[in-house]
Amino acid sequence: MPAILARIVAPQFPKRDFDVTKFGAVAGGVADNTKAFGDAIAACAKSGGGRVLVPAGKFLTGAIHLQSGVELHLADAAEIIFSDKLEDYLPVVFVRVGGIELYNYSPLIYARGCANVAVTGKGKLNGNAKQWWNWKSSESKKVFEMGANQIPVAQRVFGKPEYAVRPSFLCLVSCTNVLLEDFTIGSGPNWTIHPIYCQNLTVRRVNVATDGPNNDGIDPDSCRDVLIEHCTFDTGDDCVVLKSGYNEDGWRVGRPTENVIMRYCSAKRGHGGLVVGSEMSGDVRNVFMHDCQFDGTDRAIRIKSKRGRGGVVENIYARNLKVKNMKRDVAILNMDYSSDKNQAANEKAPVFRNMEFEDITADGAPAAIVIQGLDDSAIENIRFKNWKVTALTGVTANWAKNLLFENLTIVRDVGPVFDLKECSGVTIAHSRAAKGTRTFLKLTGASSGGVKLEACDLTQAVTKFETGDGVPENAVEIK
């Protein structure tokens, strides 16, 4: 996986500055500087590229549209405050909302089809988005209906109050060679940083601090060759979440998110540290997270989908994670995601396979590991190695096969350490029953079998294993 880094190189820009105040921008957070920002960006692009400089101070503006060769640089103590007037984000532009292609209000910062673009500097991007948040409960289901019915994209035009769809904050579409570095960003209308169909993307030392509805941190959406490093998250939703399209529209586009590295990041609040889905119908593959820390996050690893998505999630790796005070599960792989209330338009099951999670230390969580497959799409070929976890419950797995748990120590308060249902081809090796363990393994489900306990220390367990009705007599083997 680290070979991906050879393909991820941050863009370089000519040593030319275009100070927005030289184009009429006025600090203070009151004057509308939309034209000044646009003129500075246009001049920079026309000259062959360079740096559009936002000096210290508060600058109010509407939508900012970047161009090729432009680095938008926020000086230390610079703050861009975005207008809360909806008309400042018209005309509509091409975007993807919830995995559906359409035309909508412009994101606050936007670029499409650009090469060599960047947002850098230690200043702040303030979305000022409370006006948009009022739309959360009334956003139109028309988006998903249009995708399911394959309405031509040119006819999917929103950007009207009666077709209420919140835009993303910083959205780059079909861009190559992108750098996002050093700034703090928050209070966006919807997803915070949303690259779509981008290649060669570096996100470095960005601080996402936001608490609005659906304020995900970073959502690479059908992107490839992505590096996210040294970032911090305190969000109202997922921290880093990989997407690739929603159901029929995701299959039509057919572009995976692939070759992603996340490293040296940390998170506090957030529904998940590294997340995949639930919009993953175009596939997600080749993902490597390492050396990250999560404190008070809902989950460290969260892979979510549901029947109707289709798509494949594969080759996901994580190692060297230190987590504590989890609000939910340390890791969850879930094909029964319930937050999407739309009725599935088809019965196409997703596929989860080929993943490895190792060297993980977790101090405090309601659950260590949760695996929830489907009866016609078992989660398969998943390996967990070298875990030390303190949690209320241990490992729960339903509809899974070819699982390896190696060198796991799970201190839990209730239930068996391993609670497996409809699981086959499971090896639990070199693992230890902690003091106070009543049942180490519980196995139920008529399709369960081929479970091996290899070189495990079960001396502290009152019961090594128990099986439910219908489980074959030889389903569990102790070696």
Task: Tell me about this structure.
- The chain contains four helices and 37 strands.
- By secondary structure, the protein is mainly beta.
- A hairpin with a 2-residue loop joins strand 7 and strand 8.
- The mean pLDDT is 95.
- The strands form three sheets. It has a 31-stranded parallel sheet that branches. It has a four-stranded parallel sheet with strand order 4-9-12-15.
- The longest helix has 13 residues.
Strand content: over 45%
What is the distance, rounded to the nearest whole angstrom, between the alpha carbons of the first and last residues?
Answer: 34 Å
Q: What general outline do the C-alpha atoms trace?
A: elongated
Question: In DSSP terms, counting alpha (H) and pi (I) runs of 4 or more, how many helices?
Answer: 4
Helix content: under 10%
Instruction: Characterize the biggest β-sheet.
Output: 31 strands, parallel
Which segments are poorly predicted (pLDDT under 50) over 5 or more consecutive residues?
none
Question: From the alpha-carbon coordinates, what is the Rg to the nearest angstrom?
Answer: 24 Å
Give the tally of β-strands.
Answer: 37
Helical/strand content category: mainly beta
- Overall average residue pLDDT: 95
